[in-house]
Protein backbone atom coordinates (compact mmCIF):
# COMPACT_ATOMS: atom_id res chain seq x y z
CA UNK A 1 0.00 0.00 0.00
CA UNK A 2 2.01 2.90 -1.33
CA UNK A 3 1.72 5.69 -3.86
CA UNK A 4 -1.06 8.24 -4.18
CA UNK A 5 -4.76 7.41 -3.91
CA UNK A 6 -7.97 9.39 -4.21
CA UNK A 7 -10.43 9.45 -1.34
CA UNK A 8 -13.48 11.73 -1.17
CA UNK A 9 -12.10 14.75 -3.00
CA UNK A 10 -8.46 14.44 -2.01
CA UNK A 11 -5.30 12.88 -3.41
CA UNK A 12 -3.33 11.52 -0.47
CA UNK A 13 -0.56 9.05 0.33
CA UNK A 14 -1.94 5.52 0.43
CA UNK A 15 -1.06 5.01 4.09
CA UNK A 16 -2.91 8.22 5.00
CA UNK A 17 -6.22 7.34 3.29
CA UNK A 18 -9.06 7.00 5.79
CA UNK A 19 -12.78 6.26 5.74
CA UNK A 20 -15.31 6.42 8.56
CA UNK A 21 -15.91 3.22 10.52
CA UNK A 22 -19.61 3.97 9.95
CA UNK A 23 -19.29 3.91 6.18
CA UNK A 24 -21.90 1.50 4.78
CA UNK A 25 -19.20 -0.12 2.68
CA UNK A 26 -17.41 -1.11 5.89
CA UNK A 27 -20.55 -2.04 7.82
CA UNK A 28 -22.61 -3.73 5.09
CA UNK A 29 -20.47 -4.06 1.97
CA UNK A 30 -22.97 -1.58 0.48
CA UNK A 31 -21.13 -0.46 -2.63
CA UNK A 32 -19.79 -1.43 -6.03
CA UNK A 33 -16.35 -1.50 -7.62
CA UNK A 34 -14.62 -1.69 -10.97
CA UNK A 35 -11.13 -2.41 -12.28
CA UNK A 36 -9.94 -0.90 -15.56
CA UNK A 37 -6.74 -2.02 -17.28
CA UNK A 38 -4.05 0.59 -17.91
CA UNK A 39 -1.57 0.35 -20.77
CA UNK A 40 0.93 3.00 -21.83
CA UNK A 41 -0.51 5.13 -19.01
CA UNK A 42 -3.97 5.10 -20.61
CA UNK A 43 -7.30 3.51 -19.72
CA UNK A 44 -8.27 0.68 -22.10
CA UNK A 45 -11.57 -1.16 -22.50
CA UNK A 46 -12.96 2.20 -21.37
CA UNK A 47 -16.40 2.17 -23.02
CA UNK A 48 -17.25 -1.32 -21.77
CA UNK A 49 -16.17 -0.30 -18.27
CA UNK A 50 -18.63 2.59 -18.23
CA UNK A 51 -21.50 0.38 -19.37
CA UNK A 52 -20.97 -2.16 -16.58
CA UNK A 53 -20.21 0.52 -13.98
CA UNK A 54 -23.47 2.33 -14.77
CA UNK A 55 -25.42 -0.92 -14.58
CA UNK A 56 -23.99 -1.83 -11.18
CA UNK A 57 -24.70 1.64 -9.79
CA UNK A 58 -28.27 1.54 -11.06
CA UNK A 59 -28.85 -1.96 -9.68
CA UNK A 60 -28.25 -0.79 -6.10
CA UNK A 61 -29.87 2.64 -6.62
CA UNK A 62 -26.61 4.54 -6.19
CA UNK A 63 -25.68 7.65 -8.18
CA UNK A 64 -22.21 8.75 -9.22
CA UNK A 65 -21.77 12.05 -7.27
CA UNK A 66 -20.03 13.77 -10.19
CA UNK A 67 -20.12 13.76 -13.99
CA UNK A 68 -18.54 10.93 -15.95
CA UNK A 69 -15.92 13.28 -17.35
CA UNK A 70 -15.03 14.49 -13.85
CA UNK A 71 -14.79 10.94 -12.58
CA UNK A 72 -12.61 9.89 -15.49
CA UNK A 73 -10.28 12.81 -14.76
CA UNK A 74 -9.89 11.46 -11.22
CA UNK A 75 -8.87 8.07 -12.64
CA UNK A 76 -6.39 9.67 -15.01
CA UNK A 77 -4.93 11.82 -12.23
CA UNK A 78 -4.36 8.78 -10.02
CA UNK A 79 -2.60 7.06 -12.94
CA UNK A 80 -0.50 10.17 -13.59
CA UNK A 81 0.44 10.83 -9.95
CA UNK A 82 1.68 7.23 -9.67
CA UNK A 83 3.44 7.25 -13.07
CA UNK A 84 1.64 4.02 -13.89
CA UNK A 85 2.37 2.66 -17.35
CA UNK A 86 0.89 -0.85 -17.15
CA UNK A 87 -1.48 -2.37 -14.64
CA UNK A 88 -4.92 -1.51 -13.34
CA UNK A 89 -6.91 1.23 -11.67
CA UNK A 90 -9.38 0.18 -8.98
CA UNK A 91 -12.34 2.27 -7.89
CA UNK A 92 -15.19 1.73 -5.48
CA UNK A 93 -18.23 3.75 -4.50
CA UNK A 94 -20.18 3.09 -1.33
CA UNK A 95 -23.46 4.61 -0.19
CA UNK A 96 -21.60 6.66 2.41
CA UNK A 97 -21.62 7.24 6.16
CA UNK A 98 -24.77 6.65 8.21
CA UNK A 99 -26.23 5.02 11.29
CA UNK A 100 -26.56 1.25 11.00
CA UNK A 101 -29.79 0.65 9.12
CA UNK A 102 -30.38 -2.11 6.59
CA UNK A 103 -32.53 -0.11 4.16
CA UNK A 104 -31.04 2.07 1.43
CA UNK A 105 -30.84 5.41 3.25
CA UNK A 106 -31.38 8.47 1.06
CA UNK A 107 -29.48 11.74 0.93
CA UNK A 108 -26.08 10.31 1.88
CA UNK A 109 -22.82 11.50 0.34
CA UNK A 110 -21.25 8.51 -1.45
CA UNK A 111 -17.69 7.56 -0.59
CA UNK A 112 -15.31 7.39 -3.57
CA UNK A 113 -11.98 5.58 -3.35
CA UNK A 114 -9.51 5.07 -6.23
CA UNK A 115 -6.05 3.50 -6.38
CA UNK A 116 -3.87 1.92 -9.05
CA UNK A 117 -1.32 -0.88 -9.18
CA UNK A 118 1.36 -2.26 -11.49
CA UNK A 119 0.89 -5.53 -13.33
CA UNK A 120 2.24 -7.07 -16.51
CA UNK A 121 -0.72 -7.29 -18.87
CA UNK A 122 0.90 -7.97 -22.23
CA UNK A 123 3.89 -10.04 -21.10
CA UNK A 124 2.26 -11.96 -18.28
CA UNK A 125 4.53 -15.01 -17.75
CA UNK A 126 1.52 -17.23 -16.96
CA UNK A 127 0.34 -16.74 -20.54
CA UNK A 128 3.41 -18.72 -21.67
CA UNK A 129 3.28 -21.52 -19.12
CA UNK A 130 -0.44 -21.90 -18.46
CA UNK A 131 -2.14 -22.21 -15.08
CA UNK A 132 -3.79 -24.87 -12.92
CA UNK A 133 -7.38 -24.67 -11.69
CA UNK A 134 -9.51 -26.74 -9.33
CA UNK A 135 -13.26 -26.99 -8.93
CA UNK A 136 -14.86 -25.32 -5.90
CA UNK A 137 -18.44 -24.90 -4.73
CA UNK A 138 -20.19 -21.68 -5.78
CA UNK A 139 -21.54 -20.28 -2.49
CA UNK A 140 -22.33 -16.72 -3.64
CA UNK A 141 -25.56 -14.71 -3.54
CA UNK A 142 -28.04 -14.54 -6.43
CA UNK A 143 -27.12 -11.15 -7.96
CA UNK A 144 -23.69 -11.91 -9.28
CA UNK A 145 -24.24 -9.58 -12.23
CA UNK A 146 -23.69 -6.66 -9.82
CA UNK A 147 -20.01 -5.91 -9.25
CA UNK A 148 -20.48 -5.72 -5.50
CA UNK A 149 -17.69 -5.04 -3.02
CA UNK A 150 -19.14 -7.88 -0.90
CA UNK A 151 -16.60 -10.51 -1.98
CA UNK A 152 -16.25 -12.75 1.07
CA UNK A 153 -17.64 -15.80 -0.77
CA UNK A 154 -15.14 -15.33 -3.60
CA UNK A 155 -12.30 -14.86 -1.12
CA UNK A 156 -13.35 -18.03 0.71
CA UNK A 157 -13.41 -20.26 -2.37
CA UNK A 158 -10.26 -18.66 -3.79
CA UNK A 159 -8.49 -19.65 -0.58
CA UNK A 160 -9.75 -23.22 -0.98
CA UNK A 161 -8.27 -23.29 -4.49
CA UNK A 162 -4.94 -21.84 -3.37
CA UNK A 163 -4.69 -24.34 -0.51
CA UNK A 164 -5.01 -27.07 -3.12
CA UNK A 165 -2.10 -25.59 -5.08
CA UNK A 166 -4.13 -23.97 -7.86
CA UNK A 167 -3.97 -20.52 -9.41
CA UNK A 168 -7.74 -20.22 -9.76
CA UNK A 169 -10.96 -22.05 -8.96
CA UNK A 170 -13.86 -22.88 -11.27
CA UNK A 171 -17.03 -22.42 -9.23
CA UNK A 172 -19.65 -25.15 -9.61
CA UNK A 173 -23.37 -24.87 -8.84
CA UNK A 174 -25.95 -27.61 -9.43
CA UNK A 175 -23.33 -29.58 -11.33
CA UNK A 176 -22.38 -26.80 -13.76
CA UNK A 177 -19.53 -24.29 -13.90
CA UNK A 178 -20.69 -20.71 -13.37
CA UNK A 179 -17.41 -18.80 -13.60
CA UNK A 180 -14.03 -18.63 -11.89
CA UNK A 181 -13.49 -17.03 -8.47
CA UNK A 182 -12.11 -13.79 -9.92
CA UNK A 183 -12.36 -14.30 -13.68
CA UNK A 184 -14.56 -15.62 -16.49
CA UNK A 185 -14.32 -19.28 -17.55
CA UNK A 186 -14.19 -20.73 -21.08
CA UNK A 187 -13.62 -24.05 -22.80
CA UNK A 188 -12.95 -24.92 -26.44
CA UNK A 189 -13.97 -28.25 -27.97
CA UNK A 190 -13.88 -29.24 -31.66
CA UNK A 191 -13.56 -25.65 -32.83
CA UNK A 192 -16.38 -24.35 -30.61
CA UNK A 193 -15.85 -21.73 -27.90
CA UNK A 194 -18.19 -22.43 -24.97
CA UNK A 195 -19.06 -20.18 -22.03
CA UNK A 196 -22.06 -19.77 -19.75
CA UNK A 197 -24.70 -17.30 -21.06
CA UNK A 198 -25.23 -14.01 -19.25
CA UNK A 199 -27.74 -13.89 -16.42
CA UNK A 200 -27.82 -12.84 -12.78
CA UNK A 201 -25.74 -15.99 -12.11
CA UNK A 202 -22.47 -14.54 -13.46
CA UNK A 203 -20.70 -11.22 -13.82
CA UNK A 204 -20.93 -9.75 -17.34
CA UNK A 205 -17.20 -9.90 -18.01
CA UNK A 206 -15.82 -7.15 -20.24
CA UNK A 207 -13.07 -9.41 -21.52
CA UNK A 208 -15.72 -12.11 -22.06
CA UNK A 209 -17.73 -9.75 -24.29
CA UNK A 210 -14.73 -8.90 -26.45
CA UNK A 211 -13.47 -12.48 -26.67
CA UNK A 212 -16.83 -13.61 -28.03
CA UNK A 213 -16.51 -10.91 -30.70
CA UNK A 214 -13.00 -12.14 -31.60
CA UNK A 215 -14.06 -15.77 -31.87
CA UNK A 216 -15.31 -15.67 -35.46
CA UNK A 217 -12.10 -14.04 -36.71
CA UNK A 218 -10.14 -16.71 -34.90
CA UNK A 219 -12.09 -19.41 -36.73
CA UNK A 220 -14.23 -20.48 -33.79
CA UNK A 221 -17.95 -21.05 -33.46
CA UNK A 222 -19.58 -19.87 -30.23
CA UNK A 223 -22.00 -21.63 -27.92
CA UNK A 224 -23.25 -19.85 -24.83
CA UNK A 225 -24.38 -22.72 -22.64
CA UNK A 226 -23.71 -24.35 -19.30
CA UNK A 227 -20.86 -26.85 -19.06
CA UNK A 228 -19.60 -29.28 -16.42
CA UNK A 229 -16.18 -30.05 -14.98
CA UNK A 230 -16.29 -33.26 -17.05
CA UNK A 231 -16.54 -31.01 -20.11
CA UNK A 232 -13.56 -29.07 -18.79
CA UNK A 233 -11.44 -32.22 -18.39
CA UNK A 234 -12.25 -33.33 -21.94
CA UNK A 235 -11.79 -29.96 -23.62
CA UNK A 236 -9.20 -29.20 -26.25
CA UNK A 237 -8.45 -25.89 -24.51
CA UNK A 238 -9.53 -24.10 -21.34
CA UNK A 239 -8.87 -20.50 -20.34
CA UNK A 240 -9.85 -17.63 -18.06
CA UNK A 241 -10.13 -13.90 -18.66
CA UNK A 242 -10.00 -10.85 -16.39
CA UNK A 243 -9.19 -7.14 -16.51
CA UNK A 244 -5.43 -7.21 -16.06
CA UNK A 245 -4.91 -10.81 -17.25
CA UNK A 246 -6.55 -10.60 -20.69
CA UNK A 247 -6.55 -14.39 -21.28
CA UNK A 248 -4.61 -17.10 -19.46
CA UNK A 249 -4.56 -20.72 -20.67
CA UNK A 250 -5.44 -23.52 -18.26
CA UNK A 251 -3.30 -26.65 -18.65
CA UNK A 252 -4.50 -28.64 -15.63
CA UNK A 253 -7.91 -28.96 -13.92
CA UNK A 254 -8.42 -30.95 -10.71
CA UNK A 255 -5.10 -32.65 -11.39
CA UNK A 256 -6.06 -33.69 -14.93
CA UNK A 257 -4.01 -32.44 -17.87
CA UNK A 258 -5.78 -30.40 -20.54
CA UNK A 259 -4.49 -31.09 -24.05
CA UNK A 260 -1.69 -33.16 -22.56
CA UNK A 261 -0.61 -30.18 -20.45
CA UNK A 262 0.19 -28.08 -23.52
CA UNK A 263 -1.24 -24.70 -24.53
CA UNK A 264 -3.53 -25.18 -27.50
CA UNK A 265 -3.99 -23.44 -30.85
CA UNK A 266 -6.73 -20.91 -30.22
CA UNK A 267 -5.98 -19.33 -26.84
CA UNK A 268 -2.73 -17.68 -28.05
CA UNK A 269 -4.59 -16.36 -31.11
CA UNK A 270 -7.39 -14.87 -28.99
CA UNK A 271 -4.88 -13.42 -26.53
CA UNK A 272 -2.93 -11.77 -29.34
CA UNK A 273 -6.15 -10.30 -30.75
CA UNK A 274 -6.95 -8.84 -27.34
CA UNK A 275 -3.42 -7.53 -26.89
CA UNK A 276 -3.62 -5.80 -30.28
CA UNK A 277 -6.97 -4.24 -29.33
CA UNK A 278 -5.74 -2.68 -26.10
CA UNK A 279 -2.40 -1.67 -27.63
CA UNK A 280 -4.30 0.22 -30.31
CA UNK A 281 -6.45 1.95 -27.70
CA UNK A 282 -3.30 2.86 -25.76
CA UNK A 283 -1.64 4.33 -28.84
CA UNK A 284 1.06 1.65 -29.06
CA UNK A 285 -0.03 0.18 -32.40
What does this structure look like?
The protein is an alpha+beta fold and 285 residues long. It has helices at 24-28, 46-59, 68-81, 126-129, 152-163, 206-215, 229-233, 266-281, and strands at residues 4-7, 10-13, 31-39, 42-43, 86-94, 111-118, 131-137, 168-173, 176-180, 184-189, 192-195, 221-224, 237-242, 246-253, 256-257. It is built from 8 helices and 15 strands. Strands 7, 8, 9, 10, 11, 12, 13, 14 and 15 form a 9-stranded mixed beta sheet that branches. It has a 6-stranded antiparallel beta sheet with strand order 2-1-6-5-3-4. The two termini are 32 Å apart.
Strand-pairing-aware structural class: alpha+beta
Tally of contiguous helical segments: 8
- List the helices and strands in order: EEHEEHHEEHEHEEEEHEHEEEH
Q: How much helical structure, as a percent, in the residues? A: 25-40%
Query: In one word, what is the shape?
Result: globular
State the total count of DSSP E strands. 15
Binned strand content: 25-35%
Q: Give the overall average pLDDT.
A: 97
Which stretches of 5+ consecutive residues score pLDDT under 50?
none
Rg for CA atoms = 19 Å
Q: Sheet bearing the most strands, described?
A: 9 strands, mixed
The first-to-last residue Cα distance is 32 Å
Write the layout of secondary structure elements.
Layout: E1 4-7, E2 10-13, H1 24-28, E3 31-39, E4 42-43, H2 46-59, H3 68-81, E5 86-94, E6 111-118, H4 126-129, E7 131-137, H5 152-163, E8 168-173, E9 176-180, E10 184-189, E11 192-195, H6 206-215, E12 221-224, H7 229-233, E13 237-242, E14 246-253, E15 256-257, H8 266-281
Parallel strand pairs: 7-8, 7-14, 11-12
Antiparallel strand pairs: 1-2, 1-6, 3-4, 3-5, 5-6, 8-9, 10-11, 10-13, 13-14, 14-15
